[in-house]
Amino acid sequence: MSVQTIDLLKEGLPVHQESLHLTGDTKTGLVLVDVVNGFCTVGAGNLAPRQPDKQISEMVDESVRLARVFCDRKWPVFAFLDSHHPDIPEHPYPPHCIVGTEESELVPALKWLENEGNVTLRRKDCIDGFLGSVEEDGSNVFINWVQSNQIKAILVVGICTDICVLDFVCTTLSARNRRLLVPLEDVIVYSRGCATFDLPVDVAKTAKDVVAHPQELMHHIGLYIAKGRGAKVVSEVSLDTKNP
Fold first, then answer.
1. Is pLDDT above 80 for 210?
2. Residue at 29 is within a domain
3. What family, per the record (predicted)?
4. Residue-range definition of the domain harbouring residue 106
């Protein structure tokens, strides 16, 4: 798909993006969605990039930057890790991020999160992390995290913008509207902190049962739908250096 075509679609489906400045005055939690090897590390699996990818690399860099700041300040962090059982397929996707493999582990630049006291890790076996947070007794780890930390805003980063990130954001917004997530008010999606995969139209045409997925367009569509559902979309995230 040509750059001109994508630009026209963006013009017809605009996404107004703001800037976010975090001061600590509003209790904010960082949510990382599936920043794992199976989606981000070159050659790591069926759904990993086949070659270095600029959009995915920037997403990882921004996720690491924000995670460092949140952990330095002991602000709450919630990280989803896509983790599937080999005998439970997730159609229409091929096997990926199988439990116990490196695919389902955080990328090397974020492995340190496993040792941080302010971080909650959640392995999920489905696209939607909100649903993937439901325990056998009916409780929800994500809801408990929001309520126990009295979080009023969440900042969401990760992959894929139009799949796992979008599903999580939409369900969270619905749960917020039903007052299941009190005191949560704002769901904020950081566009440069999100990414999706690239499967150009010309490549998809040469493969059987494959649907084209042009990266830049689908990233934009994911942001567009999230904003339409009530999320805030921001293109920059800065922090108050005066508050350690």
1. no
2. yes
3. Belongs to the isochorismatase family.
4. 21-238
Question: pLDDT band at residue 127, thresholds of 50, 70 and 90?
Answer: very high
Angle at which helices 3-12 and 215-229 pack, to 10 degrees? Answer: 10
Domain assignment of residue 12, yes or no = no
Percentage of the chain exceeding pLDDT 70: 96
Give the Cα separation of 45 and 108 in Å (integer): 15
Strands (E), 138-216: 153-159, 186-195
CATH number at residue 96: 3.40.50.850
CB-neighbour burial class of residue 92 (10 A; exposed 0-12, middle 13-18, buried 19+): exposed
Domain-located, residue 171? yes
More reliable by pLDDT, 47 or 6: 47
Average pLDDT of the chain is: 94
Is position 10 within any domain?
A: no
Residue 78, Cβ density class (10 Å: 0-12 exposed, 13-18 middle, ≥19 buried): buried
How many CA atoms are closer than 13 Å to the CA of 66, on its beta-carbon side? 30
Place of tokens 């439990």: 99
Give me the number of domains the chain comprises. 1
